[in-house]
Amino acid sequence: MQIYLARNQVQAGPYTLEELNKMLANRQVELNDLMWHAGMEQWKPVGEMTNGQFYYDPNASSSATTPPRRVTVADLYGNKQPESTQNPVNEQPASTSFPPTSNKGPIHKGPTLESNPSDSTTGLATIGNRIIAVFIDSLLLMACYLPFLSGLDYDITVISATAGDVEKMTLLIQSVPEHLSSLTSVLFLVLFIMQLMLLIKRGQTIGKTVMGIRIVDAKTQKLASITNVILLRSLVTSALYALPGIGTLFLIADFVVMVINKQRLSIHDKLAKTMVVKADPKQLKK
């Protein structure tokens, strides 16, 4: 059996029944996508054919039929339609048989993206992985303070006592041996450069690299622009988090929005037009 799929008025296939069920199990195919195979009179939603299940068991075999040109899964689940097929579901060669043209309206693209049914799932990063990645990055940042804190015998209360008082903070810094202050500055600089380069080149911080997740452009699923990932997503967000009082509220709101959003987009994701997904080498290709 040769099965064809359609989404966003772009079709792909053919796939075997085994390939279809594998994609359904991995959520690469959504229940509101359209499907057709020989023996069907028209395109129908996948969910209608599977009775709402992520498994398709056809009741009868169908005769072979040759639909229009084969379109890759990258075309189907991507955002850019082939220039030669602006509405490929509507087009058909005169010499081929093709299902009826009804029920072919645009289908909303879901969050899970795939470029080939045999590839591993390139889905959204889990909330847990995102939290752990931030935790790892925070630990690395805190580690940079260790030389400075050693000069204060790791007495955190001394630092807390200088909060908001520039003069006291200046005297406290001067009380730390110069070589320890310099070492702290070097560690901060090295960490900053590493994180910056990873974000620009790979859309990852050290924490995200460890957790196997990546920041990508929400539309193209490729690396986000430097403006979006560095300026809007990192610097602006960090500045908002640092605001007294308001920063804590923004952090909480940011997390809540990420949890309830279907595509796990936080406020800073929406601001920068980015999303966090499982890292895949294809995302690095231009």
Which labels suit this protein?
6 strands, two-stranded antiparallel sheet, alpha+beta, 286 residues
Helix and strand topology:
Layout: E1 3-7, E2 10-15, H1 17-25, E3 34-37, E4 44-45, H2 46-50, H3 73-77, H4 127-143, H5 146-150, H6 156-161, H7 166-175, H8 178-202, H9 206-211, E5 213-217, H10 226-242, H11 246-260, H12 267-272, E6 274-278
Antiparallel strand pairs: 1-2, 1-3, 3-4, 5-6
Helix pairs in contact: 10-11
Derived from helix and strand composition plus strand pairing, the structural class reads alpha+beta
| Measured distance between first and last alpha carbons | 35 Å
Total DSSP helices? 12
Biggest sheet features: 4 strands, antiparallel
Oligomer: single chain
- Give the helix level as a range of percent: 40-55%
Order of helices and strands: EEHEEHHHHHHHHEHHHE
**Widest beta sheet: strand line-up:** 2-1-3-4
Rounded mean pLDDT is: 79
The whole-angstrom Rg is: 26 Å
**Basic shape:** elongated
